[in-house]
Amino acid sequence: MLSFLIFLSSGLFLGWSLGANDASNIFGTAVGTKMVKFRTAAFISSIFVILGAVLGGDGAAQTLNKLGSVNSGAGAFMVGLAAAFSIYWMTKSKIPVSTSQAIVGAIIGWNLYSGKPTDLSIFSTIVGTWIFCPILSGIFAVAIYFMTRFIIIKTKIPLIRQDMYTRFGLILAGAFGAYALGANNIANVMGIFVTSNQFHAVTFFNFIELNAEQVLFLLGGIAISVGIFTYSKRIMMTVGNNICIISPLAAWVVVIAQSFVLFLFASQNFHLFLEQHGLPSIPLVPVSSSQAVIGAVIGIGLIKGGHGINWGLLGQIFIGWVATPVIAAGLCYISLFFLQNVFNLTVYY
Hints:
mainly alpha; single chain
C-alpha cells in the first residue's frame, strides 16, 4: 500500500495541475467580468468538483482505461507525472490547455514503450471529441445567448434586477460546471490508477458508502480543489479577459454551454437513454473543458462580429493544444526508460 501511495502522488500532482488550469473554464468569465469574487468561485468549484468526481466519474474513466490499461503502479506514476509536467509548463505560460490531451498523450507514450497496442477506435473517438467539443460548445453558446436575450427583451427585466439574476445565475452555472468537470475530468487524474488501485471500500458517518474506485476519485477531487485555490486565478483572468471581452450575461452563457458539454460526455444515464431509443449516443470520454469554454467564447464573439476576439492569443492556445499531447507522449516514453533502467522499477507487466 505504501508504494501505491507513493506512485499515486503523480496523480495528485496532475489533479492539482488540472485544478490550477481548468478551474478557469468554470468561473473564468465570471471572475474576469468581476461578477463573482475569486474566493467565492474557488470555494464553490472545490465542493462541486469533488461531488462530481465521486458520484459521476466512473463512465469516462472506463473509456480512458480501454485506450491503455496501465497495469503497473510505477508505470501509472510516470504517465501521470508526464501529463502533469506538460500541464504545469503550459499553466506557467498562462495558456489554458487540455488535461485530456496531456493524459492521452502520456498513455500513448506508455503504450509505445510497453509494446501494448493502442485501441485505434477508442483513440479516434477521443481525438474526434477534441474537434467536436469546441464546435458543440460554440453552438450551445449561440443558441442559449439568443434564447436568453429574447427572454430578457420580452420580460423587460430592469437592469438592476438583471445584474442580480446574472450574478446568481453565474454561481449556479459555476456549481453545475464544477460538478460536470469533476465527473468528466477525474478520469484524466485517476483513471490510470484504476487497474492498480489498492484502496478498499469505506463508510463515513455510518451511511455514506464509497467503493474502492470512489475513494480513489475522492482523493483526486481533493487534489483538484487544492489546485483551484492555490494557482487558478491567473488562468481565470486569461480566459475571462484576454481572449474576448464579453458582457456578464455572455459570461453566464459561456459557463452554461461548456457545463452542458462536459456533462453530456460524462452522463451514463443520458448515454443509455440514447442507446435504448436507437439514437446516436455521445461517447463517455474525458473531453477538454478548456476547448469547451474557448469554443463557447468564440461562438459569442462571432455573433458579435468577431472584432473583439484576440486571434493571436487563440493561435498560441491552438499551438499549445497540438504540442501538449506530443510533449506528454515523448516525456513519458523517455521517463519510463530511466525509471526502468536506472531505478529498476517495473513499469509494465
